Prior knowledge:
Blueprint: E1 7-11, E2 14-17, H1 18-35, H2 41-58, H3 62-83, H4 105-128, H5 144-162, H6 168-185, H7 190-214
Antiparallel strand pairs: 1-2
Amino acid sequence: xxxxxxIAFTLGGTGVSWLELLSVAAGLTCVVLAGRNKKSxxxxxxxxxxxxxxxxxxxxxxxxxxxxPIAFGINFFGHWRWTHPRAGEESAKDSxxxxxxxxxxxxxxxxxxxxxxxxxxxxxxxxxxxxxxFVGTFEPDPQPWLDSFVLMLTLLAQFLSAQKKWDCWVVWxxxxxxxxTLYLSAGLVFMPIVxxxxxxxxxxxxxxxxxxxxxxx
Length: 217
């Protein structure tokens, strides 16, 4: 009998479950559809958040698990924004679709400032958990600062994606590069490969969305 928790295959001595495989497939499908400017990416995104929530719960990765309801909310917000543009935000190709825009220089400065401050605060908290605070309750995070800034950059990328800002793909490139480093340092085999695929899609989407922006779509 098929069980979603069973091991689908083994890679580098690490078992990959059907749940993890389905999560990866949903994630890749979602970002490819987003890169092609398809509104259907949000429906896959909802499934992706649910699968990741279950996966991280099983792996006891509670911080990553708790991120999923936030990501689900951002996804819902993005679904609304993409399909309900305000006056002047309509795509030249589809009046019921949000067009691609870019952040202003002031908005970019604000985004960087927020990520740096929030990342520093959360990184400090993570660096203390299991070492100075709640010793014995939490295992120390091996990469607290990298973990923290990847989290903040991920939230920023998701929010910018929801607003259909071209800049989101620049942030996704940074997230995926950081994730590859993080996963390799943790001894993971499958996830760095997945992040590399995300990276390739991000480069392609960066180019695709720039042309959408130029054409007012």
